[in-house]
Design brief:
Sulfite Reductase Hemoprotein, domain 1, 7 helices, five-stranded mixed β-sheet, about 270 residues, 2 domains, binds iron/sulfur cluster, about 30% helix, globular
């Protein structure tokens, strides 16, 4: 039952109709297999209204679930490896397709989403659970180029892929934005912060959370903190990670996450922007 309680706390909401709930299905990086889709089709026929909705953060939503049937829904989701909690929160970063399939991409945004999720999950398991929970309102969104299909511009921590030339070679990197969000007043763009080599971004996220832990005001949310914190303070905390000087770069910085091949920028026609 602890797994069900954790899932229910983050992935379910009561509907306005008494006795009914909605349940989010967390899809890491938006991926789902054919077998999982077939099982979900049966699940919504049995426990929902026969439909599934996609969400902006790459998850799925079941509606019209009888609240007393939520444990059965979660058991079935666990059986098909879709019973993960944390939908739409800090531990659920989203990304566009990036260099995996988009010809206009600069970097592999999906690989970064995976690396950030793994780093934060490990941190939560190593005594950082309370900090991760305290920052759960923060969304991390990643795009493989400035076009922002990953919606990095409206994320608490957003990144878009970039390249930085150092001598004759190129370093894959991410431009970081802080404090963006979408709320009842509309969209609020994040503030442009530093550019960081790709492989150092997970460490940068860890340091941002430490900054939030150490310098937040009482009861201040993570999003509120990153809306107000001085960019100079952030830049100072990340200055070594954001250095592109030749003496600070390691050989691995010249390849993108998920590959050991030298990084080169090859742009073609994009799948969502031409
Ligand atoms: S064009 Fe869109 S999908 Fe392609 S890398 Fe850029 S943001 Fe991602």
């Amino acid at each position: 039952m602890p797994a069900f309680r954790a899932w229910a706390a983050t992935n379910t909401r009561a509907q306005r109709q008494k006795g009914y709930s909605m349940a989010f299905v967390t899809l890491p990086r938006g991926d789902i297999t054919a077998e999982q889709m077939e099982a979900l089709a049966l699940l919504v026929e049995t426990h929902g209204n026969g439909t599934l909705r996609t969400t902006q953060d790459q998850n799925l939503l079941l509606r019209w679930v009888r609240t007393e049937e939520l444990p059965a829904v979660h058991r079935e989701l666990e059986r098909i490896d879709l019973g993960h909690a944390e939908a739409g929160r800090l531990l659920d970063p989203t990304s566009c397709p990036g260099a995996e399939s988009c010809k206009i991409a600069v970097t592999g945004s999906r690989e970064l989403a995976l690396a950030v999720k793994e780093t934060l999950t490990e941190q939560a398991g190593n005594g950082g659970k309370d900090l991760i929970a305290a920052a759960s309102d923060l969304r991390i969104k990643i795009s493989g180029c400035p076009n922002s299909c990953g919606q990095h511009h409206v994320a608490g921590i957003g990144f878009h892929g970039a390249a930085k030339h150092v001598g004759p070679r190129a370093v894959p990197a991410y431009q970081m934005f802080l404090g963006g969000a979408v709320d009842g007043d509309g969209a609020h763009f994040g503030r442009r912060s530093v550019k960081i080599p790709s492989r150092r971004v997970p460490e940068a996220v860890t340091r941002l959370l430490a900054l939030f832990r150490d310098e937040r005001q009482p009861d201040e949310s993570a999003l509120a903190f990153f809306k107000r914190v001085e960019l100079e303070r952030v830049n100072s905390a990340l200055s070594d990670l954001a250095s592109f000087s030749e003496q600070d770069l390691h050989e691995e910085d010249f390849s993108d996450l998920g590959t050991d091949q030298p990084f080169i920028v090859e742009l073609g026609e994009g799948e969502c922007a031409t």
